[in-house]
Amino acid sequence: MLDHRKGKWADVPEGHQDPLSYAISARDRTTIQMVDDAVRHKQVMLAYQPVVPAGQTERVAFYEGLVRVLDATGRIIPAREFIGAIETTETGRIIDCVALEKGLRTLSVHRDLRLSINMSARSIGYARWLRTLNEGLQNDPTVAERLILEITESSAMLVPELVTGFMDEVSQRGVSFALDDFGAGFTSLRYLKDFFFDILKIDGQFIRGIAQDADNQVLTTALATIGRQFDMITVAESVERPDDAAYLTSIGIDCLQGYYFGAPSVKPVWLNRDDRLGAA
């Protein structure tokens, strides 16, 4: 509350301007601590969501490995609940490392899979992350051609020259790249032709309800046209309804991803298959 004698908020520690900024800061510290605890106790995992070819949705083009952590109560916490708080911190770099380690291990064990793993452009210069990538590619020569690294549009534009140099080097080893959340950030189109993205993932804000939304139809068509111009496979994110899926297929979107085709799962179908084989 406001302490009228001192003209300041009595419950806010010295150095903080107002209750809202203090509450946000305190929440972020709590979130970072939760993720740190999960890393320390090895309570980090990947949840796998299928990406399916439009018009051939009975098969899977690749899976996206989405990082999850367990909190102190055992709840599975999705990345959207903590990534904002840790993105610029050391914890963010460590989470990128753990996600990549788990993704590479999955690819090495399951050789019929293709898998995308999210990363921040900030991890490009992080020694442990680079070492993890290099060791994974060296230990199993089949991994590179089945690994997709996803970089968000906003992250890629932080240091575009660094990102393009990194992509040039790693793509020559067979790794593919996806530009995630396209349309949500501020990509300068002059940089797009210099990147080495193979896949363009259109942000879900343009996809949800698109069958009934004329504005999003125009915007998504424009974004898809940009992708095709640069020879990128287009993926629509957050597809949740059959009419949206049908519309996206009709305008030539290459692949679809969303709850309509499968929620992210920490127990993907190939693990169930392996369990059945082991029991046979």
Automatic annotation (TrEMBL):
Residues 28-278 form the EAL domain. Pfam families: EAL. One of its GO terms (molecular function) is cyclic-guanylate-specific phosphodiesterase activity. SUPFAM superfamilies: EAL domain-like (SSF141868). This is EAL domain, c-di-GMP-specific phosphodiesterase class I (Or its enzymatically inactive variant). It comes from Roseovarius nanhaiticus. The lineage of its organism: Bacteria, Pseudomonadati, Pseudomonadota, Alphaproteobacteria, Rhodobacterales.
